[in-house]
Amino acid sequence: MSKRHLAPIVMLLLAVACGTTPGGTAATPAPPAATPTAAPSAPTGPVTCAAGFAASDVRGAGAAAGARVVTVRTGTFAEYDRFVVEFAGPVPGYEVTRQGTGFVLSPKGDPVTLAGAAGVLVRITPTVAWTSYTGPTELRPGYPTLREARLLENFEAVQQWGLGVSAPACLHVSTMDSPARLVVDVAAPR
Known about the structure:
Blueprint: H1 3-17, E1 58-60, E2 68-76, E3 81-88, E4 93-99, E5 102-104, E6 111-113, E7 118-125, E8 138-139, E9 146-155, E10 158-165, E11 170-176, E12 180-187
Antiparallel strand pairs: 1-4, 2-3, 3-12, 4-7, 5-6, 7-10, 8-9, 9-10, 11-12
């Protein structure tokens, strides 16, 4: 390779090493390997779900006022497994997001990997004071789809649960009354 061809490559390498791109904009450095990062994204690829289930994330506005989490529980049915969060008060806002099995404990930032081949993050906000929840913080039902549920965050009106599932999850999320509860049904793809 001639010096004339090497010059642009050397300039590009120097620019990246100095934190700028050839156009003069700042390059975005990669985070250090030891720093816990956001949880891995949901497994990609085509997923076929049973009727009533979808391979997509779900959000709900819920009540503006905080509700106290009373308990969590799991159940299994012929075609799916269930994770339930029960509230004393109306169901607050929620996000149910598909992802990999790696999660982050908050507010500490420690990484944790749940059982299974994929994961689901259940984020609930606002909840009442972080000290109000005294129920189980880790469930290992070992069902066909739902393998593990673990409390990841219970801090400053936010509660997050990680679900370890056997495969990229098909979801059906609903709310129910009497008592108020968030119901997350997870099914394996077909």
